[in-house]
Amino acid sequence: MQSPSLFRNILPVLGLVFALSPLGQAASPNRIAAVAAESRAAVPHTVSPRVKNAADLGSAPSDRVLDSLTLRFNMTAAQQATLTQLLNDQQNPSSPRYHQWLTPEQFGAQFGLSSADLAKVSSWLTSQGFTITGVARSSTFITFTGTVDQAQKAFHTTIHNLNLNGEQHFANTTDAVLPASIAGVVSTITGLNNFRLKSRAVPRVVKTDVLDPKYTSSVSGGHFIAPGDFYTIYDSKALISSGIDGTGVGAGTGGGYSIAVMGQVDLSLADVAAFRAASGLPANVPTVKTYGPDPGAATTSTSTPNTGDLAEAQLDVEWSGASAPSAKIVYVNSKDVINTSMPAAIDNNLAPIISISYGNCEAAAGISDMDSFNQLFQQANAEGITIVGPAGDSGATDCDSNTAIATQGLGVDFPGSSPFVTSAGGTMFNDGSSTGATTYWSATNGANSSSAVSYIPETAWNETSASGLSAGGGGASAFFSKPSWQSGTGVPNDYARDVPDISLDSASNHDGYLFCAQGSCVNGYRDASGNLNVVGGTSVVAPSFAGILALVEQEQQKLSPNISPRIGNANPTLYGLGLGNSSYYNDVFHDITGGNNSSPCETGTPNCPSTGSIGYTAGTGYDQATGLGTIDAYNLATKWSLSTPTGVNSAATISATSLTTTASICGISSGSLPLSVNVINGTFDSSGNPITGSFPTGTVQFFVDSAAVGSPVALVSGHAAYTLNTSAISSGAHTISAVYSGDNTYAGSRGTLLASDGSPSPIDVVSTTSPDFSITPCNANVTVKAGGVGPGIVFTLTPFQGFTGPITLTTNTNQTVAASYSFSPALSSTNTITINSTASVPVTLTLSAFQSNAKTATAQLKLASNHPPAMKLPWYVAGSGATLACMFLLVLPRRRRWGALLAVIISVGIIGAGGCGGSSSSTPTSTTTPTPTPVTNATPGTYTITITAVAGNVSHSATILFTVQ
Which domains does the chain show, CATH number per domain? Predict the structure, then answer.
């Protein structure tokens, strides 16, 4: 990454912004007194949550080069307070700081590290053998390179090779440790792993035997979205025909570009040109800027997995440019879209609008990374940069991807869940099966390949089928509390940041967007065989809405030439237009009131009701399926300045909320659970300790599965206690959280009940009114050498409320491991154990660190989930009806976002009357001449295995950490 020299980064803050502000500071304070190597402190949460779901392949080569290492610095409480007020003032039309955006250097002067501290950090890094490659213009991070050996020694961590879902990765397996004085100013370290965000696109190829580049397709009669259709449906045609086409907005405001598109693979400019030619758009060649090592072209290599990134890059550049036909597009390329491309775009102030079509569910993103990047997004907003990101494509269950059934509960997509990013959700057209073709579509095509004749009614996007989840993301953040600008009709009173904010068409089938990739457009949009490349997903919404915002900014520049047209955080104005002033809502937005983003879910898994469906329904005003609705671009642009932005959080100091319990969280049969909440200052001193001072005041609201329970509880000296009435909660797993309201000094924050390893952990409730049972303990640990047999784990099934009957037990994993198991006493042929009295029934599970082909039976096949690393939650799969078998191969094969493969092979061994008893053996029983039996030993590593107990609609589970040495 290109950067100015170290000592150029701290510059005096000049201009009206700070001359008029009592909060202006001449320079950042010095925070590092001295760097003492013998005094060390860990940087919390620097191990990716994805590590625990990956198979450990052993130590990474010591000479492997880590070429994208970054230390990212936090802010003091005073700096955060000043920044919060600045962001508020920049959105307030009555403030003298309204739209007075900062340069990166001005941002660094107030909110970055001082030049003296940067020098100390730089000196320490070079003393450890690292090579510094850049210092942020905003003084908020330092990039450097080094080897695995240097990183392990400097950060007192271990870096291993890992296998996750068939992809090869490396990652640190313990938190990084730094000299205490440096650890106190570091929010996270990136580059110690190569896990990356995933594309949120849903592509498909539409095959045909006849060449015809017009859409409506004369071949199939089907409809596909070309740029001209987009202009008609979302009413941007009048803007474009009047000369509002996205030109000129970026000039003189930081880099000369209107939209910066984030990517992590080399782009094909020829495909972009082919798309624009097929669409009847003027030639407009994007600029490509690469930061750090070039990621190269798309490859299927498991060591550098970036399959699908190329199609994502093409559609993002093509559709941001189609939505704003003359916008200056810069494609920001690197090996990592969030760790390198995004910071480079913001720190170099490349464009007033950033589009990113990548994401991951919050639980997989990790606490330290979300916190650090949320600070980066605040910098972007302070520079006047608007960020648009996808809401996700797995409905309300974002942690489940490429699966036909959800098991990990409610979840939303980051970075879209950040309050400083506009989250783009999805809709689909509801044009009617018989009249739609004649009412809303022309049989021929006009300008820009258009055939749509008007706005088309929409519902929430949901094309979920047996092939997999495919619906617009949405729901409540488990990490970010509700920003004060998010209010109005339909906004849930859930104390959480809700997504999405807006939506546009996202359907892949009805109706998808045309795009060009890998030479697919040789005759209009068709390839040489007459096929079309069609794509859906919220991946398309982000760049398309970014283009609409470029039109909005150009319109504002025309109307108010003396005020910067940059928008910064678009959300306060969007909600001001949408819900803050009802006279504009119906002009600017299409209120989507039909459909849902629900996912089918496995009964008994977190948040899954007895109906087996989980998600949100579209309704009047705001909803968690479509946000504020879809856009009328002309009215959005022309009425933008007429709305007063809704309020932003003016609290001075960030807070941190923790939620704990002293009771067991599994098999809760008492009807109550004691909870304890502590709310503290969310910043730390140079020794890594929370900064003390006045206690936060206000209240705490408790939630079960994002639904408020009871009344808010007042804090006393930053503490609140609450007894949760579990008798009012349905049987099974539930997520418990607490949200602090904030006060005049402290901002609100959210805490989730955590397991001992720091991951969100659901409670397991036993009904107090209906027949039910428990399985205890809910957590166990087993360590065994590869090829060996572990000690038995005794699980106890206890009946409550007169429960009797059979309980089916299944044993599954979300990782690939060659392992076998047995139950004692042996289960029946239907994989059940029966309770016929009030007495508890013990059952012993024995795990063996090998898999043998000895006397195995044909296994039942079942479609299963590709679980991204997220909350440590169970994976449920129904038991097999197979006959006697002693061995069980636990497999989760490779899945790819872009692939069509959705099959999984699970071999489930069922123990019958003549079973293996209390242990597993690799010796076969045979009536013929014995032959050597192939045995596969388990690969060393730590695996998560789930035991699921099901009786009718009642389900409980236990988790085992299975360590193979």
Answer: 6-190 (no CATH), 203-465+501-642 (3.40.50.200), 655-764 (2.60.40.10), 772-964 (2.60.40.10)
